[in-house]
Design goal:
Length: 212
């Protein structure tokens, strides 16, 4: 067996059509050349669907897990990190909430589709219907969370979904949707604050959060 990992130039976005074409070409060529080939992917390789669609098997080997049993200590530590230090003023400019009503599903769907389009992420045509059915069922079973960030007019600026495993007291990050922003325009990066809020709220229900 030979161990390797693919690398991409910076302009290729994970999940984009260019990404899919590159991975599919790699998958086909390696299958043609080798009877058995093992790839250990760098954590930056986040989307292996093209490999799966071309007959490969995949297993997770990396995750970023937050231990939230001592949430106060974790949140205090995060405040010292460079990106999280920029949260000052964010909580005063936006409203954060844990939304568990059915209407959030219908609001999240076009919001996530817009985010995917903005970053060039490829969604299947069936994604909307599959997500609606799945999220509706999970909401009834109380195992999905929608944490939102809205401006003072109530418009969605960011939303993060998490799936809960009550039996093991774990939560798993699922999707992140947000309006596009650039630091040059003076717009505020509210994503760290959304993560911070999510950790704080989830810590009352779970002992660890896998954001990968």
């Amino acid at each position: 067996s030979y161990t390797n990992t693919p690398f991409f130039t910076e302009h290729i976005i994970h999940g984009s059509p260019q990404y899919f074409l590159a991975i599919q070409a790699l998958a086909d060529e390696v299958k043609r050349s080798f009877d058995y080939f093992r790839i250990i992917c760098h954590p930056s390789i986040q989307d292996v669907r093209p490999l799966l669609e071309h007959g490969w098997r995949a297993a997770p080997d990396y995750a970023h897990v937050w231990d939230v049993k001592k949430a106060e200590e974790l949140l205090h530590e995060l405040k010292t990190k460079k990106r999280f230090r920029q949260m000052e003023g964010i909580f005063g400019s936006f409203d954060f909430a844990d939304e568990r009503h059915p209407g959030i599903i219908e609001e999240f769907i076009p919001f996530y589709q817009e985010t995917a389009q903005d970053i060039g992420y490829k969604l299947r045509k069936s994604w909307k219907n599959i997500f609606r059915a799945t999220a509706t069922k999970m909401l009834k079973e109380n195992i999905i969370r929608f944490y939102t960030c809205r401006d003072k007019n109530g418009k969605l600026a960011g939303a993060a979904t998490y799936v809960l495993n009550p039996a093991h007291h774990n939560a798993y990050g699922w999707q992140l949707a947000h309006t596009p922003f650039t630091h040059s325009s003076g717009e505020k990066d509210f994503i760290p604050a959304l993560y911070f809020f999510s950790i704080e709220v989830l810590s009352h229900e779970v002992s660890s959060i896998d954001i990968a």
